[in-house]
Amino acid sequence: MIIKRDVGRKKGGKQMKTILGLVLIVLGVLLGFYVGAYLMFFKGIVQIVQNITPQVNAVGISLGALRIVFATLLGWVCAIILILPGVKLID
């Protein structure tokens, strides 16, 4: 009697990997926008305005400016952390 074994064949996991990959990509894009746009850019502007209003605080203004400068970089890094594994799962 010969028994055939399915060695090396994937059973049923391809569709789930594709869905999980797409979810990771969407979450990566959303996380990138949240960190880059909201936490860094908009809150940096708010921080600058708040440190000018009652009395001028140079440290607060400079930290707000640094937030704005690094907003794009940190947004991309946070997005790539989730997008790359998502793309790898789709392939």
List the helices and strands and how they pair.
Blueprint: H1 13-52, H2 58-69, H3 71-90
Keywords for this structure?
91 residues, mainly alpha, 3 helices, 79% helix
What does this structure look like?
The chain has helices at 13-52, 58-69, 71-90. By secondary structure, the chain is an all-alpha fold. The protein has a domain at 31-90. Helix 1 runs antiparallel to helix 2 and helix 1 packs antiparallel against helix 3. The model has no long low-confidence stretch (mean pLDDT 88).
Largest sheet: none
| Overall SS class | mainly alpha
Compressed to H and E, one letter per element, the order equals HHH
Radius of gyration: 22 Å
* Mean pLDDT over all positions: 88
Question: What's the helical proportion of residues?
Answer: over 70%
Number of helices: 3
In brief:
With 91 residues, the protein is mostly helical. It has helices at 13-52, 58-69, 71-90.
